Amino acid sequence: MKKYMVIGIGPIGSILSAHLLKERIDVTLVDILKERLFSIKKKGLTVKDPRGHTIGNFVEYPKKILYSLKEIKEKPDLIFICVKTYYLLDVASEISEVFPSSPKVVVFQNGLDNEDQAAKVFGKENVLRCIINYAGAMASDTEVEIAFFNRPNYIGVMDKENTPLAQELAETLTRSGLETKYTDDIKKHEWEKAILNACLAPVSTITGLTMKEVMDSPPLREIVENLLLEGMKVAEGTGVKFSANFYESGLSYISKGGYHKPSMLVDMEKGGRTEIDFLNAKIVEYGEKLDIPIPFNWTVTAMIKGLEQKKQNPVNQAKKR
């Protein structure tokens, strides 16, 4: 039996881990949040799926948990990296220290060009990329609720030699309830997901409103629409070709979020560090290189960075205490 490892047991990693465990796959859960992992081992990992996005409500009891990669006794066949994008290189560096001969890794995150960053550490021959189209929230340390799943997820490779492995993983994830398709054009799906995240998440974060509340506000929806159009123009400038109805289907996609806080807003509320550098800031970076106007993305990037600065300012933290 193949041995899998999931690093980062937040909403994305928890949903993934529980579904893999349900398939009776040998999975090790890794996270620095010791209390969460201890509670999960004792009470089980509960998936709440009130809208029936995958296979309904269930509980799984992981047998293997680690608080640090340095504790591992055996090398896994595959590692899913589910941490926040800004921890990617830190985690990749730790993996490379523990395993001089790199295992295969799946970059299981939101954002643009994450796999390129991972490849600098592991080599393209060891990196796969998955585009996640589900979202959730931790209801407690041991309970994760699926907010939505706009099927399917997509998985692709940087090295064609890994195509059979990616196809096998797509089948495994699909059997588990997380419908996933293999694609030869992972960058297209990566751009699609990134610009959809980038057009709604920062507006929600700046205003403190849920996804539905933003989309129900005509002036805020107009900002979202302009962010989406800018993102599409930049992506097309890199060679991405969208379907004729992508704009309309994209708006429909993000309109299904309901009263759900995007992870960027949750991150801001918790500590003030977000994934903006892998979303809107990346669009700005590409836009400037391609000489494509990006005023909306530039503005929300600057505003989010300002909010991060305010949130992380030691003076402000002292006032809270």
From TrEMBL:
Q: Does the keyword NADP apply?
A: yes
Signal peptide range equals: none
All copies of the Ketopantoate reductase C-terminal domain together span 185-308
Q: Ketopantoate reductase N-terminal domain: from which residue to which, for each copy?
A: 5-158
Q: Does the keyword Transferase apply?
A: no
Biological processes per GO annotation: pantothenate biosynthetic process
Name the UniProt key words of this record, in alphabetical order: NADP, Oxidoreductase
According to its record, what are the GO cellular component terms? cytoplasm
Among InterPro entries, the record links this protein to: 6-PGluconate_DH-like_C_sf, 6PGD_dom2, ApbA, KPA_reductase, KPR-Related, KPR_N, NAD(P)-bd_dom_sf
Q: Which GO MF terms does the UniProt record name?
A: 2-dehydropantoate 2-reductase activity
Annotated family: Belongs to the ketopantoate reductase family.
Name assigned to this protein = 2-dehydropantoate 2-reductase
Which organism does this sequence originate in? marine sediment metagenome
